[in-house]
Amino acid sequence: MTAQPLRIARTDDAIDLDAAESAVADLLVALGHDPSSEHLGETPRRVASAYAELLTPRSFSLTTFPNDECYGELVLARDIPFVSLCEHHLLPFSGVAHVGYIPGERILGLSKLARVVELFARGLQVQERLTKQVADWLADHLQPRAVGVVMEAEHSCMSLRGVRAAGTTTVTSALRGLLRDDPRSRAEFFALTRTT
Q1: Catalytic residue among 33, 89, 141, 143
Q2: CA angle 126-132-137, nearest 5°?
Q3: Whose C-alpha in 15, 28, 64, 133 is 20 to 30 A from the C-alpha of 41?
């Protein structure tokens, strides 16, 4: 069995940490705080670094293998943790992703399902787009017979502000191929992801 790696690195504009740090200091001043105080002195640097980390996915190699066994059933990774940033409020939303596929000619190294989730979660996002991007990317790069993605997340822009509905979970799904077209396959996928 020979692996066929594909190197993945998202190409975003470089993050200017100095400018981000300056912007955080300006924000603190605008909110009535003194960024030069003993307690806030390092806050602009820390916030800039935290956002840089949240917006930069790690590169990885997409490792696939020939489907020598002709495996044609669902492969599912459940409860993949993720954190992303709401592009409307710059507040985090976090939860779990359930990602599955029915192999075609190739099977995937299982850890890569989590890597693909991280690839798109590390950015300014909305959950609907994030769910679709993971499904489309796997369908394009793996060419399986089916792909299914369900994401469940709590959005701090909804729980900490506005309506303040703490504990509310948003669920989104994206289905491709047999998981979209075949009712039995779709039902199996949702049953295994423990969603309805």
Answers
A1: 89
A2: 125
A3: 15
Check: CB of residue 24 under 8 Å from CB of residue 43: yes
Whether 157 is catalytic: yes
Question: What would the pLDDT profile of 69-91 be if each residue is shown by its tens digit?
Answer: 999 999 999 999 999 999 999 99
Selection from 185, 188, 187, 153 nearest residue 169 by Cα: 153
Domains of the chain: 64-192 (3.30.1130.10)
Is 87 assigned a catalytic role?
yes
As given in the structure block, the two tokens for residue 145 are 């017979």
> Among this protein's residues, is 39 annotated catalytic?
no
Active site annotation includes 70: no
CA distances from 89 to 6, 149, 181 (A): 34, 25, 36
42 is catalytic: no
